[in-house]
């Protein structure tokens, strides 16, 4: 009986071990075929609840060996920009339009996105000036919020 369980357990381990590469996410446009890109895809996908359903596109190399691209998963309707430098945690920026007004509870979330965009610009994953434009728009929304709260 132990022997049967041992063989069954070994078979299951091999199936699970073989299934792990099957978690390879899909790259919708055929980009990112290098080993560095594949490692980045796995690192980014690991940050989603359902890594097997994550989709990538526009994977390319940025500055200093960073792998950049766009990713969507966990039911998101838009692609987020990502960047990964080997041996470091991935940086992701949710490509969401800044609303006309921010709820006080959301300010930190938007500020954190701002920092991620700055990192992505340094990695060469987004064009130069992207961070400054985003920061200026975010500051304008936050200034408007201050004016609105001071008149109440």
Descriptive terms for the model:
alpha+beta; globular; 152 residues; 5-stranded mixed beta sheet; disordered N terminus
What can you tell me about this protein's structure?
- With 152 residues, this protein is an alpha+beta fold.
- The protein has helices spanning 2-19, 35-45, 107-123, 130-150; strands spanning 26-27, 55-61, 67-72, 80-84, 91-93.
- Strands 1-2-3-4-5 form a 5-stranded mixed beta sheet, sandwiched between helices.
- A hairpin with a 7-residue loop joins β3 and β4 (80-84).
- The longest helix is centred in the C-terminal third of the chain and has 21 residues, at 130-150.
- 20% of the residues are buried.
- Residues 1-23 have low confidence and may be disordered.
Shape: globular
Q: Are there runs of 5+ residues with pLDDT below 50, and where? A: 1-23
The mean pLDDT is 81
Residue fraction in strands? 15-25%
Helix and strand content put the structural class at alpha+beta
**What level of helicity do the residues show?**
40-55%
- Record field, number of beta strands: 5
Strand order across the largest sheet: 1-2-3-4-5
CA-based gyration radius = 21 Å
């Amino acid at each position: 009986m132990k022997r049967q369980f041992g063989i069954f357990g070994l078979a299951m381990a091999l199936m699970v071990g073989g299934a792990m590469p099957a978690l390879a996410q899909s790259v919708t446009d055929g980009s990112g075929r290098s080993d560095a890109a594949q490692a980045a895809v796995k690192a980014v996908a690991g940050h989603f609840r359902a890594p097997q359903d994550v989709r990538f596109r526009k994977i390319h190399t940025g500055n200093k060996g960073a792998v950049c691209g766009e990713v969507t998963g966990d039911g998101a309707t838009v692609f987020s920009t990502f960047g990964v430098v080997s041996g470091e945690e991935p940086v992701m920026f949710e490509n969401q339009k800044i609303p006309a007004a921010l709820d006080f509870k959301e300010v930190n979330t938007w500020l954190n996105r701002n920092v991620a965009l700055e990192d992505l610009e340094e990695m060469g994953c987004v064009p130069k000036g992207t961070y400054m434009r985003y920061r200026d728009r975010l500051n304008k929304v936050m200034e408007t919020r201050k004016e609105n709260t001071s008149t109440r």
